[in-house]
Amino acid sequence: MYTTELSKNVQPIETPEDPALLEAFEARVAADEFIEPKDWMPEAYRKTLVRQISQHAHSEIVGMLPEGNWITRAPSLRRKAILLAKVQDEAGHGLYLYCAAETLGTSREEMIEALHSGKAKYSTIFNYPTLTWADIGAIGWLVDGAAIMNQVPLQRTSYGPYARAMVRVCKEESFHQRQGYEIMIALANGTAAQKRMAQDALNRWWWPSLMMFGPPDDNSPNTERSMRWRIKRETNDELRQKFVDITKPQADFLGLTVPDPELKWNDEKGGHDFGEVDWDEFYAVVRGEGPVAKERITARREAWENNTWVREAAAAHAAKKQAREAA
Amino acid sequence: MSSDWPLWEVFVRAKGGLAHRHVGSVHAPDQELALRHARDTYTRRLEGVSLWVVKSTDIVASDPEEAGPLFEPAEDKIYRHPTFYDIPDEVKHI
Amino acid sequence: MPAADELAADPLEDAYYDYLLRLGDDALILGQRLSEWCGHAPSVEVDLSLANMALDLIGQATHILNNANNGDGDELAFKRDVLDFRNCLLVEQPNGDFARTIVRQLLYSTWQHLLFQQLAESRDPFLSAIAAKAVKEVAYHRELASEWTVRLGDGTDESAARMRDALDWCWRFVPELFEVDETLEEMIARQTVPDPRSFEREYRAAIGDVLAEAKLEMPADQRPILGGRRGHHSEHLGHLLAAMQYLPRTYPDAVW
């Protein structure tokens, strides 16, 4: 997930707070009230939110790159327009989320610098390469599918600006997963080469998609507090289970095989059993050792740094104009 | 020197007859580009017919600490609301 | 889909088809170029602006090429080779830095805007309809490019220098926009499209105004580089097509 806690034993943020204010704050959150930017909030809440929302924003922005890799090579005019509109939406979502995080007192530039220095994390999923057109289908189907499961409940998250950003994001994302699955349908009904592409994409994206939900609950240190604060609504394992249960029949419809020999329906629990995610790989990717992690960060850094002159020129022009008008 | 641009708050009128409503913010170097950025960010799906942008630092906001003195005095002035008054059902158009 | 050398015998049909390709290919190639920025722009907001323009242009290309080929614009976009593309040389120029992208946009969108305003009055129902719809999009592109030209030209020393380089790069391709060859003569004679020379003075004045506000000098005229409208392109177009057409060409039987 774009918002899951990505650091392994992350230090819980603890700061001394006025007990009366803290109690009133907890009561408001428990009563499903929204917290707004200028309201009192515990420092731990503020810092956790900045980390989570900026990580979510970074994931949207870095997430433009794997799909952006195929815009110039989309196989029809219709697919090109759809993909460009989708990746553009992700830029918009990154923008909404950076703005939401900025209301907590951290500037966008600080967040972007934290991303470029490697200090801030983003979803592990975007450190995998898009090799074929089928990857564009698989990302829409699996990655956006997983993201939606996390984002829909966040529309009711306790921090007002974040919740409002998520309402907008969810509304706009409704077509993203559908366009991905539509690509998969075309491939699954296509030539032998297209079918091979589709199966290969599922093989490569299945496990990284399950990793998106984050480490197992017993290894996810801040879950309990984040759920109490309504900045997280369901646990990693609950969401992962839900995702597997929803996605398996969709794979069946496509005639594709999920690359997990242990995947089977369990009548008793009313859900699927499935194999163990390779958590060593997950933590390696979190550490920045994903297959194309260097490419992703380099691309983002270059976009920002090579165009500093543009941002400075526009700011200089605004200053000149203001000076002229004042004179 | 910071190379990111100042922040602007964006307000959209969804259609004629409605008030402008706050929808989010954008970064922009000046007011003309702030409008462009607002248009390119917040009205890609026919969301509006009119846009306002205001520099975020130009907004004057009430302090939540003052919410008590600011807003609670209105709570007991129920006579400002139409439901306060008892009018027999058979009287119409009032 | 007729290749350029096997066009139908009717010269009137040839000219009309050729004209549609010019408009459609301009939009397609410029849209493709702008889409290369996606994920790499100077700020998130600019990323959205560039993508919006690219989407407008890809939309225009889709309408026009579909119309030119019985609803199958994809065949024209993805199966023609470089000699059969009819876009002008300006739009195929690589993005370069943001200054060059903006200058290219200013020079093209200003021209496209003047053309489409007149084309919207064409007696040809298709051309008037597409121009009337697209002219609003193009007006926006022109304004945005003008505003950025002013900011970069009258920004910092570095941005002004980059803008001068960009103008120097693009200026030689401007005369092609006003070139009148046999195809265009034919279309003008039939009174279906405007003669671009009729708005050349206005074009130069408009560009001059924007450059003056940007504190940039109008570049000295350079020797015109022509050929795009006849399929003789720069070296860049072949590479653009190699990427754009790779899937349909690698899998000719596939439906996507």
From TrEMBL, chain A:
<dbReference type="InterPro" id="IPR052703">
    <property type="entry name" value="Aromatic_CoA_ox/epox"/>
</dbReference>
<dbReference type="Pfam" id="PF05138">
    <property type="entry name" value="PaaA_PaaC"/>
</dbReference>
<keyword id="KW-0560">Oxidoreductase</keyword>
<dbReference type="GO" id="GO:0097266">
    <property type="term" value="F:phenylacetyl-CoA 1,2-epoxidase activity"/>
</dbReference>
<dbReference type="InterPro" id="IPR011881">
    <property type="entry name" value="PaaA"/>
</dbReference>
<protein>
    <submittedName>
        <fullName>1,2-phenylacetyl-CoA epoxidase subunit A</fullName>
        <ecNumber>1.14.13.149</ecNumber>
    </submittedName>
</protein>
<dbReference type="InterPro" id="IPR009078">
    <property type="entry name" value="Ferritin-like_SF"/>
</dbReference>
<dbReference type="InterPro" id="IPR012347">
    <property type="entry name" value="Ferritin-like"/>
</dbReference>
<dbReference type="InterPro" id="IPR007814">
    <property type="entry name" value="PaaA_PaaC"/>
</dbReference>
Automatic annotation (TrEMBL), chain B:
<dbReference type="InterPro" id="IPR038693">
    <property type="entry name" value="PaaB_sf"/>
</dbReference>
<dbReference type="InterPro" id="IPR009359">
    <property type="entry name" value="PaaB"/>
</dbReference>
<dbReference type="Pfam" id="PF06243">
    <property type="entry name" value="PaaB"/>
</dbReference>
<protein>
    <submittedName>
        <fullName>1,2-phenylacetyl-CoA epoxidase subunit B</fullName>
    </submittedName>
</protein>
From TrEMBL, chain C:
<dbReference type="Pfam" id="PF05138">
    <property type="entry name" value="PaaA_PaaC"/>
</dbReference>
<keyword id="KW-0560">Oxidoreductase</keyword>
<dbReference type="InterPro" id="IPR052703">
    <property type="entry name" value="Aromatic_CoA_ox/epox"/>
</dbReference>
<protein>
    <submittedName>
        <fullName>Phenylacetate-CoA oxygenase subunit PaaC</fullName>
        <ecNumber>1.14.13.149</ecNumber>
    </submittedName>
</protein>
<dbReference type="InterPro" id="IPR011882">
    <property type="entry name" value="PaaC"/>
</dbReference>
<dbReference type="InterPro" id="IPR009078">
    <property type="entry name" value="Ferritin-like_SF"/>
</dbReference>
<dbReference type="GO" id="GO:0097266">
    <property type="term" value="F:phenylacetyl-CoA 1,2-epoxidase activity"/>
</dbReference>
<dbReference type="InterPro" id="IPR012347">
    <property type="entry name" value="Ferritin-like"/>
</dbReference>
<dbReference type="InterPro" id="IPR007814">
    <property type="entry name" value="PaaA_PaaC"/>
</dbReference>
